[in-house]
């Protein structure tokens, strides 16, 4: 029903440069066309020049009620997430602004956008330059949960790589999430794996059991070459039921970017 896209270098209504915005289009009933419905500006508390809201992936819940957009340049690249909710009149309103827990400078929260579950109760975004367990630029994925219809999002968990890798930058890619929010997948494009092969990349899949996520699977690049950047940048996607994953390689110039599909089988 809705289509969304970021316009990161749009100025604010009061003339602040490059604050960014999110455009929302609605499909017209009985017609094969969309019309612009609303322009979502950042809240006044995030009205910072150069923050470029919407420069990366905009998430919309499957039920069309929730939208989340990232501004990874905000506050010296600490990053921020802005969440909007559709009210009873069909208008999207600012619901909440989210940040990495604690004070983390230059984590670049939401560097490649965010992911929402179908009902908008689970929200995830990567912080690829976060220092984790003393490892610089190891990266992580932050998960927020909303327990009731009108409750706020609270930070639920920080997903990290089971094998800390300097410059791995976990979350430096689009986050994939199943419709129920149980499965989350993302890549470590610049990580060193398989000995000294640099930048081969890998994808981590996390599954939640009783609300707690733990690493479930690891996928290496079938190409196996240095700097192929498997799982990086564009990242990938997870099917609604969590049974299918598609991730691509995105490496140096001259390397073919190839998508790979993975199927999960019961048992």
UniProtKB/TrEMBL annotation:
Protein's recorded name: Uncharacterized protein
Secretion signal span: none
Matching InterPro entries: Integrin_alpha_N, WD40
A Pfam family the protein falls into: PD40
């Amino acid at each position: 029903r809705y289509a969304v896209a970021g316009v990161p270098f749009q100025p604010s209504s009061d003339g602040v440069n490059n604050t960014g915005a999110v455009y929302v289009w609605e499909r017209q009933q009985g017609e094969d066309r969309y019309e612009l419905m609303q322009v979502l500006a950042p809240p006044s508390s995030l009205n910072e020049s150069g923050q470029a809201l919407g420069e990366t992936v905009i998430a919309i819940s499957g039920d069309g009620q929730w939208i989340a957009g990232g501004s990874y340049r905000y506050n010296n690249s600490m990053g921020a997430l802005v969440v909007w909710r559709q009210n009873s009149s069909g208008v999207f309103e600012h619901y909440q602004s989210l940040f990495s827990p604690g004070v983390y400078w230059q984590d670049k929260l939401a560097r490649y956008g965010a992911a929402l579950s179908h009902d908008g109760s689970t929200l995830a975004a990567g912080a690829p330059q976060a220092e984790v367990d003393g490892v610089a630029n190891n990266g992580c994925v932050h998960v927020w949960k909303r327990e009731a219809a009108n409750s706020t999002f609270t930070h639920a968990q920080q997903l990290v790589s089971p094998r800390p890798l300097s410059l791995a930058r976990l979350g430096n890619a689009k986050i994939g999430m199943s419709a129920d929010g149980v499965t989350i997948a993302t890549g470590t494009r610049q990580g060193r794996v398989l000995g000294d092969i640099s930048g081969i990349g890998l994808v981590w899949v996390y599954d939640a059991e009783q609300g707690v996520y733990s690493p479930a699977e690891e996928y290496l690049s079938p190409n196996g070459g240095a700097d192929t950047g498997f799982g990086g940048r564009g990242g990938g996607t997870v099917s609604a039921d969590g049974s299918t994953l598609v991730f691509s390689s995105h490496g140096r110039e001259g390397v073919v970017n190839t998508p790979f599909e993975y199927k999960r089988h019961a048992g």
